[in-house]
Amino acid sequence: MMKRVVMSLLIATSAAGWVQAAEYRRLPVSEYRDKMKAGWLGQMAGVAWGAPTEFKWKGAIIPADKVPAWQPEMINDSFWQDDLYVDMTFLRTLEVYGLGVSIRQAGIDFANSGYQLWHANKAGRDALRAGIAPPDSGHPQFNKHADDIDYQIEADFAGLVSPGLPNTVIALGEKFGRLMNYGDGLYGGQFVGGMYAEAFFEKDPVKLVEAGLACIPPGSQYAECVRDVLAWYRENPNDWEATWRRIEEKYQDNPAYRKASCDKGDFNIDAKINGAYIVLGMLYGKGDLDQTIVISMRAGQDSDCNPSNAAGVLFTTLGFSNVPEKFKEKLDEEKYWVYTEYNFAKLIAACEKVAREAVVQSGGRIEKDADGQEVFVLPVTRPVPSKLEQCWNPGPIAGSRFTAEEMARINPPPPPNEAARIDINEAVAKFAPGWMAKDCGAAMSPGIRDVGGRKNVLVTHPISESMPCVLGRRLDVLPDKKTTLHLEVGHHPEGDWLLSVTADRELVRKVIGPETTVNGWTTIDVDLSEYAGEIITVQLINAANGWKWEAAYWGKIEIRSE
Questions:
Q1: CA–CA dist 237, 221 (Å, integer)
Q2: Taking the alpha carbons of 155, 156, 162, 164 in that order, is the dihedral positive or negative?
């Protein structure tokens, strides 16, 4: 749908003190909703597609034959990805308290989150829980990871509630990005959010990157990095690998651009280089969804977060209704993201609520067109970036500390060890009649799903590192026939798990992972002849083996007698 630009005599004054005449852009609310929903879907697709490759290639391009094949059912693997549920923590704060929420309240809400965190997020939340209030929780004096990628991978929400409103994106970064980041770590999120904000009106990847660039201080190394990738693309628009090598030379190998990196080796979670990979995918993908995701992924390092950001922006330009079916045909819109109050319907409603407030607060308005349909009327304003700061030469701390009353409101749950229980017995009864489940953890979407290239797979997950999920049944072993327990089991591409089969003793103990399977699957037959004529209890135990991606995939559970 075409958006009409309406000229106005309204005069707007910026935070920097200058004055500009404002134009307006019109965005039907129904179109906003469709594009915003697509933005979340793009994040899901990018992170789910790239997840098996995350940090497995550092300082190296992922070989083309190592890129996972996209399977439509993979989209639901994203319901337990931190790339999304941390975003939603911040969205929830906005939904409850509005855009005027204080940075201190944002910090309290983040301190009370119950999920596992890493790098800047963990350091920031640890500081908050220790009484160091924001913005100091993100200051390099208290956070040695302040230049890391964290707010960059979580800032999608800021752009999705700020259609065409770059200064709202910048302000949200000042409120939420400073919980854990500073300098380039903060600017990475404002850059990503700025691209999202413009994606409601623009499809050209170059213009989207330039819109994000306008939202950050031009003197920052992050802005220099984005300008470099734009220039290298213009010099060589058909060879992304050549540009990747130039990125590596400057932003991976040159110590001058890793002054605040939390690790100086091949591992690089600095916001700048991973932001460069986002831009790499955006530019060389040339608007193609698959190529944008794959190029951002193949660049390596945080190769699920980067395609998630790139895909989120690009999907927003299309709208949910125009996204290819392979990305949404298996989407479970009723499912809730872990650690959140949101399924898709509630997520979309929360974003729209905040966006409506953002439109009005920015000097826009909400009108009805000739058909009675609501339209956002959005002021066109020049972005006013945050002040220039860099982590290796930070400014003074704010001296911000939570009061005793505020500390009394910080009551985080026990460390996740990990998932809450979920009852999957209805699914188990359909998949393998006679079997029952106990102590199944809620992580990784347990139940019957299409996974690992197979349909109708039962997925289970342990409660914790020490408490496995158990499938069990009583079995009358026939005295005059050979009885065999036949299992076809698989694993998540990025994880493994420990299988134990027991009767009165342990009959099988085997790690199910890449080293023990072919294309993610293996067959196990357990001879139960020794129990002929007896009634036994058989247990199939899905135990943790390192506590990463511990889901068990059950392709078949059968008792065979012959």
A1: 23
A2: positive
Q: Give the list of residues 6+ apart from residue 276 with CB closer than 8 angstroms, or none.
A: 225, 226, 228, 229, 247, 251, 299
What is the torsional sign of CA 366, 315, 384, 153?
Answer: positive
Q: Give 7's pLDDT tier (boundaries 50, 70, 90).
A: very low
- 264 exposed, middle or buried (CB, 10 Å; 0-12, 13-18, 19+)? exposed
Contacts of residue 239, defined as CB under 8 A and 6 or more positions apart, other chains included, come to none
**Positive or negative torsion for Cα 501, 506, 512, 518:** negative
Cα 386 to Cα 91: distance, rounded to the nearest angstrom: 21
Please tell me the total number of residues recorded for the chain in this structure: 562
For the chain, give the mean pLDDT.
Answer: 92
Residue 421, beta-bridge partner list: 441
pTM for this model (two decimals): 0.79
Other residues' Cβ atoms within 10 Å of the Cβ of residue 207: 14
DSSP string, 495-553: --EEEEEESSSEEEEEEESTTT-BTTEEEEEEE-GGGTT-EEEEEEEEE-SSSSS--EE
Closest Cα to residue 251, out of 278, 231, 271? 271
Tell me which DSSP letter residue 269 carries. -
Spell out the alpha helix ranges (H) of 449-488: none
Other CB atoms within 10 Å distance of the CB of residue 52: 22
Flag the least confident range among 23-27, 75-79, 269-273, 373-377: 75-79
Mean pLDDT of 64-76: 92
In percent, the amount of the chain with pLDDT more than 90 equals 82
The C-alpha atoms of residue 322 and residue 315 are separated, in whole angstroms, by 9
For residue 223, give the H/E element and its range.
helix 221-235
Determine which of 16-30, 45-59, 157-171, 444-458 has the lowest per-residue pLDDT on average.
16-30
Strand partners, 300: none
Inter-residue contact 289 to 315 (CB < 8 Å):
yes
Structure tokens that stand for 234 in this block: 């213009």
Domains assigned to the chain: 5-408 (1.10.4080.10), 425-561 (2.60.120.200)
- The CA distance from 487 to 490, in Å, is 10
pLDDT above 80 for 20: no
Q: Give the contacts of 47 (CB within 8 A, at least 6 positions apart).
A: 78, 81, 83, 84, 304, 305, 307, 308
Contact call for residues 173 and 189 (beta carbons, < 8 A): yes
Name the H helices within 252-409: 271-285, 289-298, 305-318, 344-361, 404-408
**% of the chain surpassing 70 pLDDT:** 95
Task: Say whether pLDDT at 15 is over 50.
Answer: no
What is the β-pairing status of strands 447-451 and 374-380?
A: unpaired
Q: Round to whole Å and give the CA distance between 496 and 512.
A: 5
Residue 319's Cα: distance from chain center in Å? 19
Q: Each residue of 378-409: pLDDT tens digit? A: 999 999 999 999 999 999 999 999 999 999 99
Q: Please provide the distance, in angstroms rounded to a whole number, between the alpha carbons at the two ends of the chain.
A: 65
The packing angle between helices 289-298 and 305-318, to 10°, is 160
